[in-house]
């Protein structure tokens, strides 16, 4: 266990100290921001709606925000949470936090109030930044003691984040080994956990992406993925490492994306289903609309990828594999090199296949995908019971099954039985989390959740439930009940009631058996 992790106890040490690792030759985000200011000063760094910020202005604004945060009492290791769609303030908070040694906690605005409450209770942020659109998620009675700042104009009850941009030069803390972001993921046991990523983690992953795609200062990232996703962060930082720009999109709008690519020479983009299909539909009437787009990455079907290549032959789809705990991509390759694979590992990330005991397997043998190296996260925040399982010896166990062929390509074969991940439209849905909510309904005695094929989203959530004696329940009413407690994308699309559920020899509910029986 990293020695700083033992100090991350927000109750015992409200002003805990993070170890500062002075690593010679190491790169941190402050270095990157200052380098871009010197080398690409007046070139565009970020754009949002009608606003434009150059690399030099980005350095000035992040330095001013860091000063204001320091005056507000933010010290190394403090958490700064944010609930907002993509915006300029999001990336400025990231840059300012890197100067202070603070930890940015992006919160998924699609979550329910109880899910947001869980994250805020777990992280106990020093400050919370929230857009007016999502105020209801953080300003309830449970959070009356939080220091909240609204993104945009001051509201009657909340000061504006802009008031924290203060002239002055707070000295930057130059280190790369302490945390920069905490992304909540892996709700295997029913509650999401905060994966802690250091500056080294994030910049190493971004540099891997930059090198694979040969990014240049004239590259422009179409920032459509939300910044609470590690892929959205990876894309943004990869282009920044090249001195390029990111056009931040507040939400997914296929027509607006096509317009932005055409007018702003967008060149790289990552998507989740069904985004790419809708972009292709929107571009159908304008064959040259995606002429500058040279790289698309993400998750999609063969049919959609083939359509992209047929309609826009200068745009190349890249196959990848990664997760939040690996700071982003650990494999990348052009789709056509090995269709169906997830690409090949690229140093400095080391990818292998292991059996249940952790022994590495030979090419072609199916096992669990494991990763080691500087891309692997620092651990889960305040979660000690599963820490050893997640980082056995030198390898991180992803919980996903796969194989590596004789040519080094990784083939992703789905989540391991213990993980049972459902991937719906690029979002992770963990059955245990949904099952926990289902069992809170007074009419439900037992429940099992699994993924079923879905033409639009890749997978849909299905629940099979056993009712308590004497109870009746409409499936739509149960779906609405779940939707009140978790994000909408996690609630079941399908509900089926059964007399009993398949069980293992130990008497436990057999999820695989249930999917085999009810998953048609």
Report on the architecture of this protein.
The chain is α/β, with parallel strands linked by helices and 520 residues long. It has helices at residues 29-39, 55-71, 88-100, 113-123, 199-213, 230-241, 254-264, 275-283, 302-311, 387-390, 431-438, 475-483, 511-518, and strands spanning 44-48, 51-54, 79-83, 103-106, 127-130, 148-150, 179-185, 193-198, 220-223, 245-248, 268-271, 295-298, 316-323, 328-334, 344-345, 350-354, 367-372, 379-380, 396-404, 410-415, 422-424, 427-429, 444-454, 458-467, 494-497. The chain contains 13 helices and 25 strands. The strands form 7 sheets. The protein has a 5-stranded mixed sheet with strand order 11-12-13-14-15. α1 packs antiparallel against α2 (55-71), α2 crosses α3 and α7 (254-264) packs across α8 (275-283).
Any chance you could write out the topology, listing elements then pairs?
Blueprint: H1 29-39, E1 44-48, E2 51-54, H2 55-71, E3 79-83, H3 88-100, E4 103-106, H4 113-123, E5 127-130, E6 148-150, E7 179-185, E8 193-198, H5 199-213, E9 220-223, H6 230-241, E10 245-248, H7 254-264, E11 268-271, H8 275-283, E12 295-298, H9 302-311, E13 316-323, E14 328-334, E15 344-345, E16 350-354, E17 367-372, E18 379-380, H10 387-390, E19 396-404, E20 410-415, E21 422-424, E22 427-429, H11 431-438, E23 444-454, E24 458-467, H12 475-483, E25 494-497, H13 511-518
Parallel strand pairs: 1-10, 3-4, 3-5, 5-6, 9-10, 11-12, 12-13, 24-25
Antiparallel strand pairs: 1-2, 7-8, 8-18, 13-14, 14-15, 16-17, 17-19, 19-20, 21-22, 23-24
Helix pairs in contact: 1-2, 2-3, 5-6, 7-8
């Amino acid at each position: 266990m990293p020695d700083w992790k033992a100090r991350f106890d927000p109750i015992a040490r409200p002003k805990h100290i993070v170890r500062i690792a002075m690593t010679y030759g190491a790169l941190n985000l402050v270095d990157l921001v200052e380098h871009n200011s010197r080398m690409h000063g007046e070139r565009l760094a970020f754009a949002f709606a009608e606003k434009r910020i150059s690399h030099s202005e980005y350095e000035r604004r992040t330095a001013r925000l860091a000063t204001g945060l320091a005056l507000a009492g933010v010290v190394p290791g403090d958490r700064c949470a944010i609930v907002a769609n993509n915006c300029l303030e999001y990336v400025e908070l990231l840059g300012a936090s890197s100067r202070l040694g603070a930890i940015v906690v992006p919160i998924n605005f699609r979550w329910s109030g109880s899910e947001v409450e869980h994250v805020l209770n777990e992280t106990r942020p020093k400050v919370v930044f929230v857009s007016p659109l999502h105020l209801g998620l953080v300003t309830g009675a449970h959070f009356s003691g939080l220091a909240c700042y609204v993104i945009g104009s001051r509201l009657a009850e909340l000061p504006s984040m802009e008031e924290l941009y203060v002239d002055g030069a707070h000295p930057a803390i130059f280190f790369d080994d302490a945390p920069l972001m905490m992304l909540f993921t892996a709700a295997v046991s029913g509650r999401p956990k905060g994966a802690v990523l250091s500056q080294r983690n994030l910049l190493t992953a971004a540099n891997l992406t930059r090198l694979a795609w040969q990014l240049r200062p004239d590259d422009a990232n179409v920032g459509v993925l939300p910044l609470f996703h590690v892929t959205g962060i990876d894309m943004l930082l990869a282009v920044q490492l090249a001195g390029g720009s990111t056009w931040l999109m507040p939400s997914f709008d296929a027509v607006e994306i096509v317009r932005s690519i055409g007018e702003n020479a967008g060149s790289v983009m990552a998507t989740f289903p069904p985004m790419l299909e809708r972009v292709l539909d929107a571009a159908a009437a304008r064959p040259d609309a995606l002429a500058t787009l040279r790289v698309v990455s993400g998750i999609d079907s063969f049919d959609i990828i083939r359509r992209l290549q047929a309609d826009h032959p200068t745009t190349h789809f890249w196959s990848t594999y990664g997760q939040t705990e690996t700071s982003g991509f650990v494999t990348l390759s052009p789709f056509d090199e090995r269709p169906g694979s997830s690409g090949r590992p690229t140093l400095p990330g080391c990818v292998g296949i292991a059996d249940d005991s952790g022994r590495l397997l030979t090419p072609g043998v199916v096992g669990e995908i494991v990763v080691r190296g500087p891309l692997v996260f620092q651990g889960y925040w305040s979660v000690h019971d599963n820490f050893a399982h997640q980082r056995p010896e030198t390898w991180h166990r992803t919980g996903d099954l796969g194989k590596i062929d004789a040519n080094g390509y990784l083939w992703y074969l789905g989540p391991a039985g213990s993980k049972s991940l459902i991937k719906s439209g690029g979002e992770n849905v963990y059955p245990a989390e949904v099952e926990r909510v289902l069992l809170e309904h007074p009419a439900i005695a037992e429940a099992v959740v699994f993924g079923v094929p879905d033409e639009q989203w890749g997978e849909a959530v299905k629940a099979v439930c056993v009712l308590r004696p004497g109870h009746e329940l409409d499936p739509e009413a149960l779906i609405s009940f779940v939707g009140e407690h978790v994000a909408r994308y996690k609630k079941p699309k399908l509900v089926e009631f059964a007399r009993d559920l398949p069980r293992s020899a130990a008497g436990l509910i057999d999820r695989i058996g249930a999917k085999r029986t009810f998953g048609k």
